[in-house]
Amino acid sequence: QKEVEQNSGPLSVPEGAIASLNCTYSDRGSQSFFWYRQYSGKSPELIMFIYSNGDKEDGRFTAQLNKASQYVSLLIRDSQPSDSATYLCAVNEGSYIPTFGRGTSLIVHP
Amino acid sequence: NAGVMQNPRHLVRRRGQEARLRCSPMKGHSHVYWYRQLPEEGLKFMVYLQKENIIDESGMPKERFSAEFPKEGPSILRIQQVVRGDSAAYFCASSPGPQGSEQYFGPGTRLTVT
């Protein structure tokens, strides 16, 4: 059974701080990793994907992958209230179907 | 480049009726996935299709649910004889390639069964 685990939160951070969202996965053969943002009542929106160990940066977002420890994280720098949403981690071991975590709720308070 | 399109956005059906949900993938994408999401719950995979083929329907109930992706036209998720438990948000996603590719989601169809 492939599992993707996320702390459901909520994770509360002040505006301007760094928000750190974590995700662990069970399948060592996993090859591709995705972060989605989902606002309440809306559909998931792809933020980033990462395939190789290390960091990948895009604007205020940084994805970090550590395959040896089987975790992937998302850092959001200079957090804004508009970043308040649920963040979904998805992991694909090379099959057709990614496994989604249940998401972490992030609240950025002014 | 238009994103993934889904219609209708909201659908109300009485118990026993049929629901048809449509999804047009992004231009150039030929891989379509359907997911269901209940309030405060995660995404549940239902079915993966390519043009004219069902590749994986392991997440779809065997009864009352069916999906297709014809050569021409949108992908359709069909729910026959709906029950209250079918009330949920149904999302379609498309991807540019097969295994391991990123997925782009449509706005979803909110199905309410009364």
Report what the structure shows.
The complex is a heterodimer of chains A (110) and B (114). Chain A is 0% helix and 54% strand. Chain A is built from no helices and 11 strands. With 114 residues, chain B is mainly β. Chain B has no helices and 11 strands. Chain A binds chain B through residues 31-32, 34, 36, 42-46, 49, 51, 88, 90, 92, 94-98, 100-103, and chain B through 33, 41-43, 45, 48, 55-56, 58-59, 91, 98-108.
**How would you spell out the order of helices and strands of chain B?**
EEEEEEEEEEE
Count of individual beta strands of chain B: 11
Secondary-structure element pattern of chain A, one letter each: EEEEEEEEEEE
Helix content of chain B: under 10%
Radius of gyration of chain B: 13 Å
Q: So what's the overall shape of chain A?
A: globular
Span from first to last CA of chain A? Answer: 40 Å
Residue runs with pLDDT of under 50 for 5 or more positions of chain A: none
Helix-and-strand structural type of chain A: mainly beta
Number of strands of chain A: 11
Share of helix among residues of chain A?
under 10%
Number of helices of chain B: 0
Mean pLDDT score of chain A, rounded? 94
Q: What is the SS-derived class of chain B?
A: mainly beta
The amount of beta strand of chain A, in percent, is: over 45%
Show the helix and strand layout.
The complex is a heterodimer of chains A (110) and B (114).
Chain A lengths: L3 E2 L5 E4 L4 E7 L6 E7 L6 E6 L3 E5 L2 E6 L4 E6 L8 E8 L6 E2 L3 E6 L1
Chain B lengths: L4 E3 L2 E4 L5 E6 L6 E7 L5 E8 L2 E4 L8 E4 L6 E5 L8 E8 L8 E2 L3 E5 L1
Parallel strand pairs in B: 2-11
Antiparallel strand pairs in B: 1-3, 3-8, 4-5, 4-9, 5-6, 7-8, 9-10, 9-11
